[in-house]
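Hi F.,

I've been meaning to write this up properly since the lab meeting, where we talked about keeping a consistent format for the predictions we share between groups. The idea is simple: the sequence comes first, exactly as it goes in, then the structure tokens exactly as they come out, then a line or two of notes. No screenshots and no reformatting. I'm using this chain as the first example so we have something concrete to point to.
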Amino acid sequence: MNYDVFNGDADGICALLQLRLAEPKSSVLVTGIKRDIELLDRVNVKPGDDVTVLDISLQKNRPHVERILQQGARIFYVDHHLAGDIPEHAALKTLIDTDANMCTSLLVDRYLQGQYRSWAVVAAFGDNLNQSAEQAASVLKLSAFEIGQLKELGVCINYNSYGSCVEDLHYPPDQLYKRLLAYKSPFDFISDQRSIYKELQAGYYDDLVQANRIKPEYDNNHVTVIVLPDKIWARRINGVYGNELANRVPEKAHAIVTHNKRGGYQVSVRAPLINKTGADELCSEFPSGGGRKGAAGINHLPVERLPDFIKRFSEKYSQL
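Output, unedited:
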């Protein structure tokens, strides 16, 4: 049995697209919303099974990695989040790089020697790694318009991954992946009038208009905190809206706060684009928090702890 375990965002989806376009394989797909990262908890293997893991933290999944290895399966693990101590095992192969300008799809692109680089560019744009995306795209000899197309597609795929549950999304990530797998090039998907691209675009822009109407909860020279209302559109837009604000004001850190189903908040943090550091450290101070240096989050922040978060957020980025 083969298992493909991947984050439901643009990076996870595009990483798997590259691998399966290059190495077609029938597999069980295991994925979910972007914040659903302990995906290996759902994987039960038998000796000889193969598990590919893409774009979820090894640190958060280490107990499951050890269990799967003990059960006799092989694991190929590619990621750019905090990994912690990586187990040493003959059946575990890892490609892990936590550099703030790296994403999982770029690691897969390197592994495949650029076979499906345009999909890696889409993913890097989706992760708001614009400079890395443009650098990767430089060898493709694309026009500025074509690069813009890949950027917008990356943002729209990433937008579809945010929500408190799969029902908040326009498409479940496994279904979106299957739709995209029919296209060797992202340009084929963009140009196909039968594709779902126009629907994703329309949803993104509709939700963005509503987010832009919300005034900041807290704002100073270093940080901006925005609390969105308890609406489905707000849960969908929170992550990509953080990227949008980071691009608008690259010298500031941003936090987008949305309501979750546990009666608390979910927080998305974006470090300043001019100094992409500290987001993972800040969010890891709170239970259920983590991520990477430039972008991180907290899955559940009790309502009464929002002032504590804002205080620590402001302190962190006032000192950097």
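Notes:
The two ends are 48 Å apart (CA to CA).
The CA atoms of residues 28 and 154 lie 24 Å apart.

If this format works for you, I'll send the rest the same way.

G.
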